[in-house]
Amino acid sequence: MTRGPWHVAVLMGGWSAERPVSLSSGEGVAKALESRGHKVTRIDMDRNVAARLAETRADVIFNALHGVPGEDGTVQGMMDLMGLTYTHSGLATSVIAIDKQLTKQALVPHGIPMPGGQIVESESLFAADPLPRPYVLKPVNEGSSVGVAIVTAEGNYGNPIARDSVGPWQDFPELLAEPYIRGRELTTAVLGDEALLVTELRPKSGFYDFDAKYTDGMTEHVCPADLPPEITEACKAIALRAHQLLGCQGASRADFRWDDTQGIEGLFLLEVNTQPGMTPLSLVPEQAAKLGIDYATLVETIVEEALNRAGGSTDG
Question: What biological-process terms (Gene Ontology) are attached (predicted)?
Answer without folding.
Answer: cell wall organization; peptidoglycan biosynthetic process; regulation of cell shape
